[in-house]
Inverse folding.
């Protein structure tokens, strides 16, 4: 199956490349309210720690949320045979999982710039 991951935000360069026969998702489709609440709390604790040092490292509050999101993403991508995306982290996850990836750039060329800088041997 083909996994199509497409931006819905201001970085989207258009959706003309989307296939009509494949469902489209973005990160917020994997994130539930508990993930957003956990992210907001972790961000708040990290900002607070910048102003007033906390007794424990506030970044540790993010680790369980991060790990749950990574597991969700790996499970979602693991059901696919190939990926088409204009998301940098979608491209990176697919590559780490050994999935074929077709890249569509975002509005300012982030994926192309990343590929040209870090993946020079990779065939697009």
């Amino acid at each position: 199956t083909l996994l199509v991951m497409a931006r819905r935000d201001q970085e989207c360069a258009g959706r003309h490349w989307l296939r009509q026969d494949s469902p489209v998702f973005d990160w917020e489709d994997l994130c539930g309210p508990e993930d957003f609440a956990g992210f907001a709390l972790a961000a708040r604790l990290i900002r607070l720690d910048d102003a007033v040092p906390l007794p424990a490292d506030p970044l540790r509050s993010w680790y369980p949320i991060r790990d749950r999101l990574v597991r969700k993403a790996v499970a979602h991508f693991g059901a696919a045979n190939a990926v088409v995306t204009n998301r940098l982290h979608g491209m990176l996850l697919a590559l780490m999982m050994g999935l074929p990836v077709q890249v569509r750039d975002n509005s300012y060329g982030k994926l192309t710039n990343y590929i040209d800088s870090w993946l020079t041997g990779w065939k697009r």
The first helix runs from residue 27 to 30.
